[in-house]
Amino acid sequence: MMSADKKLKILIKENKGFITYEELKKNQISYASIHGLISQGRLITEERGIYQLPEVYLDEYYALQHRFSKGVFSMETALWLHGLTLTVPNEVVMTFPYGTNTKTIKSAGVKPVILRSNYFGGVMDLIRINGQKIKVYEQERVLAECLRNIYDLDVQIIAPAFKIYVEKGNVDYSKLLKYAKMFKVEKKVQSYLEVLV
Question: How far apart, in whole angstroms, are the C-alpha atoms of residue 49 and residue 85?
Answer without folding.
Answer: 32
